[in-house]
Amino acid sequence: MARSAPRRPLFARYYAHVAGPALEKAGAARHRRSLLEGLTGRVVEIGAGHGLNFPHYPPGVAHLLAVEPEPRLRALAADAARAAPVPVEVAGARGERLPADGASFDAAVVSLTLCSVGDQAAVLAEIRRVLRPGGHLRFFEHVRAVTSGTRRVQRVLDATVWPLLCGGCHLGRDTVAAIRDAGFTVTALRTFTFPAPGPAGTCVLGTAEKPPAPAPPPERSGPPRPSGRGAG
Fold first, then answer.
1. In angstroms, rounded to a whole number, what is the distance separating the alpha carbons of residues 127 and 173?
2. Where is the composition biased (Pro residues) (predicted)?
3. Is residue 84 part of a domain?
């Protein structure tokens, strides 16, 4: 049986009215623009929140399916979709079970999402399913720290209060390794500190590709045909 959509009303209010605006004030918009630059065709965004990415989608996007399981954030995303520069369909679903056919999207987007999904491997497998061969996954995530000391802090926080206070978020996930383990090829990757040094400050922004469809095997030629001429 599929798990019901998570309801985190307190965290949803906090993220929509406090954490989200704070990230924008710290300069998240420039990372969102970089994340989405050049996208075209049909795109699915997993964990769309209340739609902070919507204003930054380029006009080449023909259709955006924005998936958000949390009801309060999803309602805010539906409001934001009305002002988006591209056609947006907001849907309530979990990343582990996307409401889409296989190979039906040109690109997928995750933005500060893979830290909080219940089953990271399952979500990435589902993204791979709905992407066409050669399709791209764009990701902007906070991840496991570079230094051993900060990693220890992340492990302690992940095992105690952080997921409870921050909507299921985990600080110490090795998300880039998980993307590769899901069968994607990482083609671009930038690591940086945002919004400030600390347990949640190590971020990555990049692109990964679903392998293209294999080329069809060459046609096998039959045995040589007789020329029809006798020996001279």
1. 18
2. 211-226
3. yes
pLDDT more than 90, % of the chain: 86
Question: Structurally, how many domains does the chain consist of?
Answer: 1
Distances, alpha carbon 98 to alpha carbons 92, 102, 130, 228, in Å: 9, 10, 8, 62
Q: What pLDDT, on the 0 to 100 scale, is given for residue 124?
A: 98
**Cα 3 to Cα 7, 95, 97, 117, 226, distances in angstroms:** 12, 11, 10, 12, 67
Q: What is the pLDDT of residues 124-157, one digit of tens each?
A: 999 999 999 999 999 999 999 999 999 999 999 9
